[in-house]
Automatic annotation (TrEMBL):
Annotated Transposase putative helix-turn-helix domain residues: 3-36
UniProt keyword Lyase present: no
Compositionally biased intervals (Basic and acidic residues): 378-392
Alphabetical UniProt keywords: DNA recombination, DNA-binding, Metal-binding, Transposition, Zinc
MF GO annotations: DNA binding; metal ion binding
Protein name as it appears in the record: Transposase
InterPro entries found in the cross-reference section: Cas12f1-like_TNB, Transposase, Transposase_put_HTH
Pfam families named among the record's database cross-references: Cas12f1-like_TNB (PF07282), HTH_OrfB_IS605 (PF12323), OrfB_IS605 (PF01385)
Protein source organism: Kribbella sp. HUAS MG21
Ranges where the Probable transposase IS891/IS1136/IS1341 domain occurs: 164-273
Positions of the UniProt region annotated as Disordered: 375-398
Highest taxon in the source lineage: Bacteria
Length: 398
């Protein structure tokens, strides 16, 4: 997906927001129909029948007829595609779309190719019932058959084209690397390189805390609360941009330097869930401590270090060359003799084998075990799973 900034006028922005509201309304209405399905009611209406219902609704309601039929029908098509992905097990269950959080719509077909270049830096795109909107050409615009218009939490508008990027070619030398992801150090390579994702500065943390306290005292619906939410969103977006830039640079560098990249097979979604409450069996209505504050800090550290983003971008840039290794005992096993015990870890940073006396950085030792792959499995039966993403397939979603 290739994304660019667009700069609509105030009048065009109002029209774009109306398109977003219509697409969100149609999506939620289709989700409500599907959620109310029951055996005695018969099957829920699908795309073709919902398009007929949309035509009848546009004929009856003027506010819906004022919007673009292309945008509204595409929302129904996207929902139908989401259902197919859910039933096939490749995507999660479709969810409700909320105002202010899910602002966007998609255009597919001949409308998506109506882009005119103005000069070296600027172009314009024709959006149905909005007109020509300025587009910043930060790089070459791809030849795509669909695009998606969206607005982020900082009130910035973007256009994203649905294209499959070319994979990064490997060096062809057979080089293998293991990547150990952590909280203190974002990524450690088996070559001994220590990589750290840029996080929040001390000033940004203090400002975020100050803004959140002011937001808690603000009155809902007030202009001051809206400005505070925008300021907080800018801080989070700035941190996310730094993290995304780091992931892009590191993933490209690894894909170019190594032919085989091995990472731990981590279930990050399950790892970052909040702990469940622990009821006190002796006192009804009272709960025991469950260390939720410590777990929240750990979850925040995992997400801020971009564990999932790094593995995902590696699989996209080096398809078929990324292998996932079972993470069990990789940090407790000696990379020299293969002895495994919890006593090998003196602390978080130091690894010292009690059998052979090998001493090394704990994360580097774990990365070497991950890079060993099959060699480790010969000692400890640690399986290696090759990523199923062999070659990028063309897609029409943006």
């Amino acid at each position: 997906m290739s994304r660019f900034r667009i700069y609509p006028t105030p009048k065009q922005e109002a029209a774009l927001l109306q398109h977003c509201a219509h697409a969100r309304y149609v999506w939620n209405l289709a989700l409500e129909q599907w959620s109310m399905w029951a055996p005695h009611r018969g099957p829920a209406p699908r795309f073709v029948k919902q398009c007929r219902q949309l035509t009848e609704a546009r004929a009856e309601f003027g506010w819906l007829r004022a919007g673009s039929q292309t945008v509204q029908q595409q929302a129904l098509r996207d929902f139908d595609q989401a259902l197919k992905g859910f039933y096939s097990g490749t995507h999660r269950r479709p969810r409700w779309r909320k105002a202010g959080l899910h602002e966007g719509f998609r255009i597919v077909g001949s409308q998506a190719s109506r882009i005119v270049k103005l000069n070296r830096r600027w172009a314009k795109v024709n959006i149905p019932k909005v007109g020509w909107v300025r587009l910043r050409m930060s790089r070459k615009i791809p030849d795509a058959k669909s695009y998606r218009i969206s607005r982020d939490r900082m009130d910035r508008w973007h256009i994203a084209f649905a294209v499959v990027p070319e994979p990064v070619p490997g060096p062809g030398t057979g080089a293998v690397v293991g990547v150990d992801r952590g909280v203190t150090l974002s990524a450690v390579l088996s070559t001994g390189e220590l990589l750290e994702c840029p996080g929040w500065s001390k000033h940004e943390q203090e400002r975020l805390k100050h803004l959140q306290r002011r937001l808690a005292r603000g009155r809902r619906g007030s202009n001051r609360r809206r400005r505070l939410r925008l300021a907080i969103a800018k801080l989070h977006r700035r941190a996310a941009n730094r993290r995304k830039d780091w992931v892009e640079r590191i993933s490209t560098d690894l894909a170019r330097r190594f032919d085989v990249i091995r990472v731990e097979d981590l279930r990050i979604v399950s790892m970052t869930k909040r702990p469940k409450p622990r009821p006190d069996p002796r006192r009804p209505g009272v709960y025991l401590p469950n260390q939720r504050r410590a777990k929240a800090g750990l979850n925040r550290g995992i997400l801020m270090n971009g564990w999932g983003d790094l593995a995902r971008r590696l699989e996209e840039k080096a398809p078929g060359r990324v292998e996932r290794v079972n993470p069990a005992n990789t940090s407790l096993t000696c990379s020299v003799c293969g002895h495994c015990t919890s006593k090998n870890r003196e602390n978080q940073a130091v690894f010292r084998c009690v059998a052979c006396g090998h001493r090394a950085n704990a994360d580097v030792n774990a990365a070497i075990n991950i890079a060993a792959g099959r060699a480790v499995s010969a000692r400890r039966e640690t399986p290696v799973r090759v990523s199923q993403k062999r070659e990028p397939q063309p897609t029409t979603s943006a």
